[in-house]
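PT: before anyone asks, these are the final sequences, not the draft ones from last week. 279 residues across everything. Please model them as a single complex and drop the result in this thread when it's through.
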Amino acid sequence: MIVVHEFGRLRAERKRLPEPVGFLPTMGYLHEGHLSLVRRARSENRSVAVSIFVNPTQFGPQEDLAAYPRDLNRDLALLEGEGVDLVWNPEPETMYPPGFQTWVAVEEVSQGLEGERRPGHFRGVATVVTKLFHAVAPQRAYFGQKDAQQAAVIRRMTADLDFDLEVVVCPTVREPDGLAMSSRNTYLSVEDRRAAPVLYRALKAAESTFADGERDAQRLREILHEILDQEPRAKPQYVSVADPDTLTELNGQVTRALLSMAVFIGKTRLIDNVVIENQ
Ligand code: AMP
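LR: through. Structure below.
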């Protein structure tokens, strides 16, 4: 496995990779969710490239950039174990040298949900992913359903900017009690960790009510709130029943929807989602 920190080395090593190249962008502190993407990429491509970069431009001024967990040596050992070929690990100054002033804004699909609560977040994501796509030039790029709006933004951007690659969105990997794996789960105290599966419980309750025939979007939102309200440590920031592609909020009867939420458990902000669909 080759680990590179500069553009020149990246370009030289990229040229040597047999194609197709499968690529996944990460912010490191890897867990089974990331590794499931690596395995999928490994099974579908001749080469696998991974980036590890905690992207400062997708964090708001009040967010956790400095505190974001990092452990490069552990990450590299995990990626080596999965047979990854190339790791791109630039410094922030390499990605954003002095004078940097070019941004990618994906408009409507960035606006609701996470975009509304994290102003500028998707501008940072779209910009860094554009730069990563240019630098790594993969044939396929892998993203997790865990970050559903991110996946929708990247799909839109890839189509709009004519990137010649396939975006592959992989299922959310969960802990045995349903908590979606996340590098941020490390912030949870013991009590918070015990409370955190309430997000998935709420999503499953709404999903099963839908399976039993409930179609009203507002009623589904109420069910999500009812379950979250049972957990005193949980403070919902939003719950949403939205169109899975455009992410516009739905009302009335639904046949297909993204159920999603952001919930503070203590001081930690967690997100989760499921897609429901008429069978
Ligand atoms: P991050 O390091 O958090 O930026 O995540 C890198 C990629 O891994 C993104 O495409 C995420 O959506 C994906 N990912 C993170 N957590 C999970 C999970 N629990 N299951 C599946 N994919 C995930």
